[in-house]
Amino acid sequence: MKKLFSTSVSDTALSVALFVLRVGAGSLMMIQHGFDKLQHFAQRSHKFADPFGIGSTASYSLVVFAEFFCAAFVILGLFTRLAAFPIVIAMCVALFVANKGHFFGEGELAGIYLVAFLTILFAGPGKASLDRLIGK
């Protein structure tokens, strides 16, 4: 019971927490959003929003890159911070442009993903990652 209310965090607990966050958020992003967009690329790319004026196909390609390929790198813990950055940008656009900043309404899911991937961006991948193995 005493450990339940403790404010100290062990290195192992932090590594496990970052692993769970990285794999959980990355898997949900990649499977629920990125894979679906990748599968229907030809049907959806010409109708996608163009918030930066680069064309709907280019905008859709960047979102697929972030939501599928970058999420896969986050899951593996490979180039984690670099891979989390495009996802953070995509979620900012989804929340503030597509959902008009309605964090507590229609933009809730984008907001949750934004918070999760910002945490990964700031905290890094943890010890259970390919980044750590490469760094040795």
From TrEMBL:
Domain of life: Bacteria
Membrane-crossing segments per the record: 12-31, 52-76, 82-98, 110-130
Classification via InterPro entries: DoxX, DoxX-like_oxidoreductase
Predominant place of localization: membrane
Compartments where found: Cell membrane
Keywords: Cell membrane, Membrane, Transmembrane, Transmembrane helix
Keyword Cell membrane: yes
Gene Ontology cellular component list: plasma membrane
Keyword Cell division found: no
Topological type in the membrane: Multi-pass membrane protein
Pfam families, A to Z: DoxX
Stated family: Belongs to the DoxX family.
Name assigned to this protein: DoxX family protein
Organism from which the protein derives: Flavisolibacter ginsenosidimutans
